Amino acid sequence: MSVTIAPWGPDDLPLLERLNTPEMTRYLGRPENSDELLARHERYLLSWEAGHARMFRIEVDGEPAGGIGWWTVEHDGMPAYETGWSVVPEFQGRGVAGAALRLVIGGVREAGDRHLLVAYPGVENAASNALCRRAGFEHRGSASRPWRDGELTFNVWVLDMSPLDLTGRTPDIEERFDEGVLDETLWWPFYTPHWSSRERAAARYTVGAPGLELRIEAETPPWAPDLDGELRVSHLQTGQSSGPLGSGIGQHRFRPGLVVREAQPERRLWLARFGVVEARLAAIHHPDAMVALWPIGFEDAPDDCGEICIAEIFGAEIDDTGGWVGVGVKPQNDPRLSEDFEKIRVDGDLTQFHEYAVEWTPERLRFFIDHRWVKTVAQTIDYPVQLMLDVYEFPPAEGERDAAALPHRFRVAWVRTYPPATSGR
Fold this sequence. Notes:
The structure is a single chain. The protein is mainly beta. The protein is 13% helix and 38% strand. It has helices at residues 13-18, 34-50, 96-111, 126-134, 198-201, 225-228; strands at residues 3-7, 53-60, 63-75, 78-87, 116-119, 138-147, 150-160, 173-175, 204-206, 212-216, 232-237, 239-240, 267-268, 271-272, 275-282, 289-293, 296-297, 307-314, 322-330, 340-347, 354-360, 365-369, 372-377, 385-386, 388-393, 408-418. Strands 8, 9, 10, 15, 21, 22, 23 and 26 form an 8-stranded antiparallel beta sheet that branches. Strands 1-2-3-4-5-7-6 form a 7-stranded mixed beta sheet, sandwiched between helices. It has a 6-stranded antiparallel beta sheet with strand order 11-25-16-18-19-20, with no helix packed on it. The protein is elongated and about 75 Å long. The relative contact order is 0.12.
């Protein structure tokens, strides 16, 4: 199913009529009469010319399915955009509104002129309120106002799209890799070696100005060939926890039935819990390569294993004008989390350095690229995490490894963490 949005056009009045039935307007008091509906249609058309709003037709596989948009408002004295949506009955319950809202959020993010997006669904509109929560909006109470010959009571939802502001904050740890030797009080240079071995999981790297270079070389072996095929990894992590030989206890249980093959010492090195995690990274433009920064739970308890994906960049998804960066939360084996992961289009050369960050609070996670907000996840992880920094080489779908492209070089200028702010937004 492909969900797209297109500018509202002159031929969309029949769609607006389908969105104006008693069923579709039951949370708005009543349907609009024909004059009101025609006036709304004209406002939708004129909004594009006036520049204060953007109204769209939602399409599913090219078929009209609803409407969505944003328009200028003030919220608590601050400039904001308001959004609203409606989907015809036959497309409800299929994720259409959520997909369309993600596209609208992306449009507001790209516009960049207002840092608040608000929504005011009726308090009884359970589906729209749930969608606001899933999209990262924060509930700010409820209010009432006259509406269509009656009174509408609505919830107030606010999405904070403001840039990352580190003014007055000092990192608790800032690693610039400029000492000429890896600081093993911070980093363990092996990729989850308990599922394989330190020999196979060992990182290939150099450190020193201007930073870290993680490499996959011609001689780099597959890290666990019977578990992960020909996947090769060069990786640093800031903790290590696993059980005794033969047990199923260990970090990053990426498939069922894993057992510890080589016992490892416990390492509690650089563990974070809330605050900001930020890094300056340069990706690799090659279809077999992927680079990532993804803190995971240290796993003092088996369920404490969720992943905060700050940046996941596949070389196959980089082009001459930009590329896609994956951000969000992956539950792995944490039953309290649900996956909320999204790929964000970023303009510019991703093989040059960019800054990727997460602002992590007890309520939510906000993600940033070059300090610009890109996504909010309305979940959190309430346990210590270790940083996972790596480059992968995936086996090509056909043929041999691209030996001429080796080594793959993942450059990291710095990584730093900030403690939680003393006061919230």
